[in-house]
Amino acid sequence: MIPSLASTVPRAVALTCAAILAGCAYLPSSGPTARDILNAQDSAANALGFTIADLSPDLVDALDAAPAAVVVPMPPMAGNAIFERIGAGDTLSISIFEVGTTLFGPSSGLGSLSGGIGMGPLPTTAAGQAMPAVTVASDGTIPVPYVGRVMAAGRTPRELEEAIRSGLKGKSQDPQVVVTVRDNLANSVMVMGEVKKPGRVPLSVAGERVLDMVALAGGAAYPMTDVSARLSRGPISLEVPLAELTPESDANLMLRPQDRLMIERRPRSFSVLGAAGKVAQIPFDAPKINLAEAVAKVGGPGDSQADPRAIFVFRYQPQSSPVIYRLDLMNPTSYFLAQRFAMRDRDVVYIANAESNGLTKFVSILNLLFSPVYTTNQFFRK
Q1: Would you say residue 369 has pLDDT above 60?
Q2: Cα of 358 vs its chain's centroid, Å
Q3: Predicted confidence (pLDDT) per residue in 184-199, tens digit
Q4: Which of 337, 340, 338, 343 is nearest to 244 (CA)?
Q5: Residue 329 pLDDT grade (very low, low, confident, very high; cuts 50, 70, 90)
């Protein structure tokens, strides 16, 4: 006897339901539940050694106190006198003033000089001679008439004046020397990248810092929230977002000669995954953004699938183990903590699925299967 279609279909559905129940763990999902994440912390799958920390007032205070940017130690620098040192490639202006019998000739008369009451007559001639602009050679020397080559590199203008004056003794009567640095290549910083006026910027004796040098280069070509500064000093480099730099921060380093400052466009962003109202990568668009603002930008937890007790922030920290911060939005205190928790570049906000999502999806699949069966049974009963 061949069984009827009405009796065969329910048996097939029953077998299908059994198969679905057996594979319920493999139902489609947007990510793990809170239980899955907590269990993974102590499992062999935790190869990175991440830890989970519940947000609390003490933890948020500690995160606020910690610097957002890790400052890499830079090679030590000398005192402010280094900014006055002459180096190879610098262009100098040298003027030599003489009284009495002049060595260079009266090319620039300074007028007659006379003594005061009770003083004898002073020499009647005084003249100053400006030498042509001279560039410091690669060996650090410059040519000076009647003196020869004088070592200029490594000396300050005052020290070079005294060296030239000493060389002229015996050849000129009481010479006076003035040295001015016209083009200071040795004591400068090369500013490159996304600034309005890239190029070589000389350092002053006051000592410029990173933010000062960006301003001297005309400022960043993009908003500071999208720009990063990379300072290179020899083999060591430090990179920090300009939005995180303040005049008093440790990362706003004092610059030294031959530093290189690269300004690059590096938009900061965070990602939101899981049972959120919208899965997206969100740009900061502000110097700072907190966790409450980050969750709100994607519409918050999805009402039909999210677990509001399980909002996680995955933060990868190169200098230490990764950390997962957990926030419970069912606790009113958490909303205040979320306003104080500062997001960082490349953070991942994950809104966990509710535990009941698996059962809800299973029931939905059963409804899809039973609907045609019910229709078929109704058809054969007629």
Answers
A1: no
A2: 43
A3: 888 889 999 999 999 9
A4: 343
A5: very high
Q: What contacts 159, CB < 8 A, 6 or more positions away?
A: none
Contact between 258 and 285 under an 8 Å Cβ cutoff? The reply is no
pLDDT at 55: 94
Q: Give the model's pLDDT for residue 364.
A: 53
The tokens describing 66, both together, are 């910690």
In the numeric block, which tokens belong to residue 24?
Answer: 């319920």
- pTM score, two decimals? 0.62
Distance of CA 326 to the CA centre of its chain: 26
**46-81 pLDDT tens trace:** 888 899 999 999 999 998 887 655 555 666 554 444
